[in-house]
Amino acid sequence: VTPQEAADAARTQALAASVRRVTQDLALATRLRRVDETMVRQHLAIAEGEIEKSRLEMKVMKQAIDDKSLVVATDDAIPTPMDEDQREYHYCTNCKVGGHGQRFCEYLLKRREWRVYPYQKWFEDEKHNEYHCPLGKRLVDFADESHFSRIAMYIKGRIWLEDKTKMWELVPDLMPDTYVIEDLKWRDGRAPPRDDTSNYPWFVKEADRNWGTSVQVCQKASECMDLAKPNAMYVVQQHIKDPLLMDDGRKCHIKFYVLLMGLEDAATWRLYTFKDGYLSISPNPWTPTDLSKETQVTIIRSERIGAWRQWDAVYPKCKAGVAEVVRRGVAQGKLEGRPGKRQFEILSSDFIVDTRGDVWLFEFNMSPVLKDPQDSPQTHDADMITAALEIVVPRENGAGPGEWDFAGEFVGKAPPLPEKKIVPVTTTQEAPTAAASELLAGVDTAHQGPLAGEGASDLGLRGLGLG
Q1: Signal sequence: where (predicted)?
Q2: Distance between CA 76 and CA 83 in Å, rounded?
Q3: Which residue has the higher pLDDT, 359 or 70?
Q4: The pLDDT value given to residue 300
């Protein structure tokens, strides 16, 4: 800058401002570079963590596949028993059947001794639906495909609990008077009385559906047939007389949870009922003439039942009711054992109480709504599920049955064993698929520490059968 230019105050100020801007830009660029470097380091750390997690997952999967205690599932009537003293781990597989299979896997995987066993495609039906099984068609400790599981999560004979017409045949004295429409005709010619003057509404329900999704309401018995469709079956029931309402006049029903377990001898059944539960409450005050589904059909679990002042008196009656259902189902051979396999289900039953204190059984839901803490932090069923699995799959130093209440043991007749099929020796220890072998090629197994106590979500096991 020449002396003349330096004497120009305006020019000097402009140059100074320019220097300040350049300095600020340089400082900002330096800060941004530091931020970028920090983000890069963070991303690298995350990537390295994911790589290590994947490596450990692959190691665990290889250990599972190499476990010689797992045999191929066969058509033998009784699975080959396991020597529990020689086992280090138990395995579960989510075969994507649906229902609560994935949920039960996730809860079992919270135990230190449980591991994931991967799945593979089993077959594809004519509608291109894919079915899955444990890799190598192994028999694992738990899977939602009963053929490949030592513990079946579906009760044989469950149709006698799920189908409302069959349950009416089993326990008509525990239910409201029930009529059946079959292909637009009253079954056996038995129709409800047309001269009923009680003014209580009538319900027309599809026999094989639950959760209130197929319930229609009408005022008179003579209107029921008009609500039916051809080639379908319905149960028809009138509203119970004098229902016990909430203090504010709203209708409610009890969502009563049940754990039913069949033992490996295929004859012994154990029943547990949950001491807590839910009330499903209508949003509207109840009157017999309001035919809206919101008023008459209570579906949503509204609140925990423990605080309901009627519960202490009602609970034993609900417990006795479901015990009688199971007793008859076992005695009549409707509920079938699985030789060599334990089977269980968590189900719910719907009861309504009248002002005399009597309880009326309406239906069982074989796949009831269950919620996990991550989805419903305030109202969830984690304690119920965890305690149920402690009963079904007991362990040393387990948490015990929790709020599950033993409701009875029932012994029936074990089903006859089918003739044993001759299976070629080459299939008794079928190797994992070539794809699995390629997948595991080069996996580093030098680090032998197990991933103990980690659940499915922690392990990121979407690709291993839990996604």
Answers
A1: none
A2: 18
A3: 359
A4: 85
Q: Which residues of 129-161 are buried (b: 16+ CB within 10 A; e: fewer)?
A: eeebbbbbbbbbbbbbbbebbbbbbbbbbbebb
- Does the pLDDT value for residue 350 go beyond 90? yes
Q: Which whole-number Å values give the CA distances from 230 to 226, 273, 295, 305, in the listed order?
A: 11, 38, 28, 40
Q: Are 159 and 349 in contact (CB under 8 A)?
A: no
pLDDT (average), residues 444-462: 33
- Most distant pair of Cα atoms in the chain: their distance: 119
Domain residue ranges in the chain: 1-151+433-467, 159-176+240-411, 179-239
User: Which residues contact residue 25 at a Cβ distance below 8 angstroms, ignoring those fewer than 6 apart?
Assistant: none
- Residues 305, 349: Cα–Cα separation, whole Å: 14
Give tens-digit pLDDT for 28-53.
Answer: 999 999 989 999 989 888 988 888 87
Highest mean pLDDT among 203-217, 283-297, 311-325: 311-325
Give the orientation angle of helix 101-108 with respect to helix 382-392, to 10 degrees.
80
CA distance 96 to 133: 9
Domain 159-176+240-411: CATH architecture, name and number where available: 2-Layer Sandwich (3.30)
Is 368's pLDDT higher than 80?
Answer: yes
Better-predicted residue by pLDDT, 207 or 275: 275
* Rg, C-alpha atoms of the chain: 31
- pLDDT per residue over 273-293, tens digit each? 999 999 999 999 999 999 999
Non-local (6+) Cβ contacts of 439 within 8 A are 58
Helix (H, G, I), strand (E, B) or coil at 65: helix
DSSP string, 203-261: EEEETT--TTTTEEEESSGGGSGGG--TT-EEEEEEPPSSBPPPTTSEEEEEEEEEEEE
What burial letters (b/e) apply to 262-296, b meaning 16+ CB within 10 Å?
A: bbbebbbbbbbbbbbbbbbbbeeebeeeeeeeebb
pTM for the structure as a whole: 0.78
Give per-residue pLDDT as tens, 155-179: 999 999 999 999 999 999 999 999 9
Q: Which of 136, 143, 91 is nearest to 114 (CA)?
A: 91
| Torsion of Cα atoms, 266 then 270 then 276 then 279, to 10° | 60
190 secondary structure, DSSP code: -
For residues 370 and 385, is the Cβ–Cβ distance under 8 A?
yes
- Pick from 253, 278, 252, 241: nearest CA to 354: 241
Q: Under a CB-based contact definition with an 8 Å cutoff, are residues 259 and 388 in contact?
A: yes
CA separation for the pair 64, 59 (Å, rounded): 9
